[in-house]
Design brief:
single chain; alpha/beta; Rossmann fold; Arc Repressor Mutant, subunit A; nine-stranded mixed β-sheet; two-stranded antiparallel ribbon
Length: about 375
Amino acid sequence: MIEDWLRLLYTKGASLNQKHFLLEQLGSPGAIFSASANTLKESLAEIAGRSIEPALFLKPLSRALSDTVKEDIQLLERMGANFIPCNSECYPPLLRATDSGPLGLFYLGNRELLTKPQIAMVGSRHASRGGKETALHFSASFCAQGFGVTSGLALGIDTASHQGALDASGETTAVIATGIDQVYPSRNRALHRAIAERGLVVTEFPPKSPPRRNHFPSRNRIISGLSLATLVVEAGLQSGSLITARLAAEQGREVFAIPGSIHLPGSKGCHYLLKQGAAIAESPEEVLAEVSDTGWIHQNTVFQKSVSQIALNAEQNGIFELLDFAPCPVDELIRHSGLTADQVSSILVQLELQGLVIESVGGYQRFPST
């Protein structure tokens, strides 16, 4: 129930990782709040780091918090917004593969974008005219090849990236640092509305949450976590985009930076990233070529096959059901399927030829359209 998820979000005194651990142990927020003191004590004793008192989750729901939760649910209903918990099949698989995914996502728009291949584009709020034009061009090019563009709805490069996708009739996701009912910055109200209608707006923060300084780094990890790669278009040395790039690298995603003039302050952050090992991006094709190596593009065409359109035998279906949208090592497929290595390899080739799975670093995974 969304009431229990909101209550867990509002529970103070436990970290995100500790809440995730309890969810893994007990299964749901409702199970956490209805657990006995002994059950909670046993589960909490296994959490690394500082200890948490079971009483934190045993306290009766206060009248004030109950009212807040009811108001949140009513607000979401009025807006037509929804919530995806982290244990849902609809939760984005690439974000689930990270170590710090949110407990859930509030969203407005097309939820299906969360399971489609995306490229993050970020950069300075005080972008140059050339930087904005570059963002528009790269964004449109990515969309032309079937990729969605993910950014943070900020002014400057973020705005141009979203707009480039919309202008190209492509798909774009805005990850915001406020509640789903808030628009920040207010100058992007029209853009926010357009993305909600034609793309997707998501946030981990409960309704009515204002923009706070610590929200933006949290927002950035979701931008990179949803995406196969992160492209920094233009950024200064103090730009939050460098945080997004660092988080992307920590999540095992490719990081690209566009070089610029040595006299342009907005190029210094990109040049710093290039010195640190980011891949250079002088054209959209360079980014697309790198991402295509993971199998998301095949001969410049995005696969559109659905498993429902293809007849699979029992063994093929068994292997397909073991796969998710994150890479799974072949030895795990062998172990869980009970088949031989030769059988599993043969089935994977068959599924790949049918456009249902792809081979990537770390193993095999479902193709996003399946």
